[in-house]
Amino acid sequence: MNTKFLSIFLVLFLLVGCARAASEFEGAAGEGVETAVPPADTTSTPRPTRAVQTGTTILADGQLVALHPALPLSFSGNGRLLTLHVAPGDVVVEGDLIATLDDISLQEAVTSAELQVAQAENSLAQAQLSLDDLVNWQPDETAVALAEANLAVAQTNLSKAQTQDATAGNSLTAAQIQVDQAERGLVDAQNAYNTAHDPGRDWELGVPWQAEMLKNERTGTERGLQLAQESLQVAQANYNLAVAGLSNNNAISAEASVASAQQALDQATRGPKPSEIAAAELRVEQAQIALDQAEFSLTQTKNALDNARLFAPWGGAIITVDAVVGALVGSGTPIVTLFDDDALQFHTSNLSERDLTQVAVGESVAITLKSYPTTPLTGQVTRIVPQSNGLVGDAAVFTVVIDLDQTELVLLTGMTGRAEIQHPD
C-alpha cells in the first residue's frame, strides 16, 4: 500500500515539474510583450502538432546571427569620389555598383599601356621574323649570280685603277727628274753668275779688250740664271700636277668596292654564322621579356581602373554612407557599410559540455523563437565551435551553429529562442 502511494506521488510530481518548465519557457518567450488575458470561456490557441520523435532531445537557448557581419566597403586605391549610387536604407544585390572614383588618368594610363603592348608585340614579331630568316636560310641563285657579277666588275675597275695609278706614278717620276735637273741647272747658272759678277774682276773693266768680254759674260750669266730659275718653276709645276693626279687614288676606292662585292658574295653563298643566329635568338628573348613587362603593366593599370569602381560583394542593405561626392578618399577609407540579414544562422549560448557528446553535425533541429512561439523553424547542426564561451554553474558551455531551412517568416538578427536538437539513440 505504501509503495503504491509513493509511485502515484512521484508521477504527480513529475507532471507538475514538466508543466512548470513549459510555463517558464513560454513566459521567457513573451518577455517585454503585454499579454491580454482571455475570458474564462475563450478557447486557448492550439499548438502545432509535431511528429512523434524518438531519441534524445538536447535543449539550448540562443539567438539569430548574421552569416555576414556588417561590412564597411572601401576602395583599394586613392582618388576623388566621383559618384555615389546608394543612400542609407537602400537594398542592393551582389554586383551592384556602389560608387566610382575619378578615373580619367587611369583610363589614359590603360590606353598608354595598350600602345606599349602593341609596340612590344610588333618588336617581337620583327625579331622572330629575322630569326626565322636566319634559321631557314637557303642560297638565292639570283642573288649569288648578281654578287658574282658585281665582284667581276669591281675587280675589272680595280685593274683599270691600278693601271691609271701606275701611269700617274711614272709621270710623277719623270716630273721629279725634271725638277732635279732644273735645280742643278739653277745651281750651275748661279755659280756662273757669281763668277762673272765677282768684284775682284772689276779691274778687267780697265782693260779695253777684257772689258768687252767681261760685260758679255755678265750679260750671258744673267740670262742663264733667269732661264734656269724659269726652268725650275716649270719643272716644279709639272711635278705638282703629277702629285695632284695621284691624290685621287683610284685604286683605293676600287679596292674597297672589291672588298664589298666579295663580302656580298660570301653572304649570298655561306649563309648566316652561328653567332648571328645566337644574336637573333637573344633579340627574340629580349623582345619577349619586353612584351611580358608591357602586358604586366597593362594588367596593373586595368586592375587600378577596375578598382576605381566599388561593387557590392553580396546582397544586403546599406546602413550607413560614410563619404560625400567630391571628397578625396584613401585606400581603405569606408565609403558605405553593407549589412546582409538574409543569410542567418542560429547560435546557441548555453549548451552544456555535458550534452556535447549527444550533438553531431547534420542532426535535425527545431527552433522556437520568442517572436514566433507557435511557428517553429527547422534546421541542421553545421558545426560546433571548439572554444567554450563561458561557464554555467560548474559546466562550460559551447556554441552550436545551426543552419536554417527556408521560411516565409520575417527574421531579424538578434531574435532569441530555444533550439531542440534531436539526437537519435
In short:
The protein is of the alpha+beta class.
Give a written overview of the molecule.
The protein is α+β, with helices and mostly antiparallel strands and 425 residues long. The protein folds into 3 domains: 52-101 and 316-423, Elongation Factor Tu (Ef-tu), domain 3; 105-137 and 274-306; 141-270, Orthogonal Bundle (Helix Hairpins). 49% of the residues lie in helices and 22% in strands. The protein has 6 helices and 15 strands. The strands form 3 sheets. It has a 6-stranded antiparallel barrel. Strands 5-4-2-7 form a 4-stranded antiparallel beta sheet, with no helix packed on it. The chain has a 3-stranded antiparallel beta sheet with strand order 9-13-12, with no helix packed on it. Helix 3 (141-196) runs antiparallel to helix 4 (208-247) and helix 3 packs antiparallel against helix 5 (250-270). The longest helix is centred in the middle third of the chain and has 56 residues, at 141-196. Residues 1-52 have low confidence and may be disordered.
